[in-house]
Amino acid sequence: MLMVATGNRAVAEAVREAKPVVIAAYPITPQTGIVEQIAEYVSHGVLLSRYIPVESEHSAMAACIGASATGARTFTATSSQGLLYMHEMTNWAAGARLPVVMANVNRALGPGWNIWAEHTDAIQERDTGWLQVYTGTVQEAYDTTLMAFCIAEHNDVLLPVMVNLDGFLLSHDMQPLETVDCGDFIPPLHLPHAIDPQNPIAYGPLTGPDQYYKFRWDIERSMRDSVNVIGQTQAEFARRFGRKYGFTDDYRCDDADAVVVSLGTLGKEAEVAIDALRSEGIKAGSMRVRWLRPFPKLDLAGREVVVIDRDYSFGFGGVLAHEIKAKNHIDVCSVIAGLGGQEVTYDDIAGFIKNRRIGEESWFGVTPGV
What is the mean pLDDT of residues 284-293? Predict the structure, then answer.
């Protein structure tokens, strides 16, 4: 079905199609539209799920953990401070190997209080064992949410997946959306370690030094195995529905001398900048990283690289820039831009590329020394 929808509506439509058994919900701007739309589907009988309106984000993830531990498909959504409130439970979901799917509408952290787009909320969760994917269009938010259930629930993975979309810039932006009847694209969930009342067993949560590291390694092993599962799922989605996705979304990179790398909607804005630069004879390209965990292999050899981070690790730098430097053994031009919804236009991005200084970091809008 064709419609015009927001990113939030797109996620809700995908959840309706995926048919989770349990949905735990707590509102927070700019995510609220997702759980409100899902609540409407449930109340009208369009979606036959158990909808649990909880008292906090911590409880939302706890409810998903409890349901998922019984082998039920689960979903929740959050943003910013809500994601931080979940932090204890996000670690538990990954450590317990529970395939929870969550939409996170990226929003800046307070103080100062800010409801606009920034990636620091999700970036702070990158070491919990969750797979993380960043979307750039309404259609991609829908398609990726569908694929997230397949990936999380695959027996080679069994890790939670966080689908990220930029607050307001995507969550509330209206774009064309084509929904699908996914049929058997998402197979039934068979959790091998599900709690079963018909087969009661004892669970011992305390893990000693002789075993704990093995559980940590098992998460890492599954994170590595997820690379193949993601590739297979994206290929199957393309075969069935005709829309292709990769670990990155590359635009005019084949012959580029300079490549700008970013996450989310900044990558779509960068495509306009690339077209403008090409018209001036500047051979530039854009690489939008979709999967932050597992972190992909990037084809950046022989190019000068400009990385735009809509996040920051104080005393360290832009997180995406440093991950690219570490993984690819290259130096980059690091630009910190778009924090707290700061406007970044295609003209600005073109300027970042033209004025790049490899090996240096700059903050867009900040005069050094001031």
Answer: 98
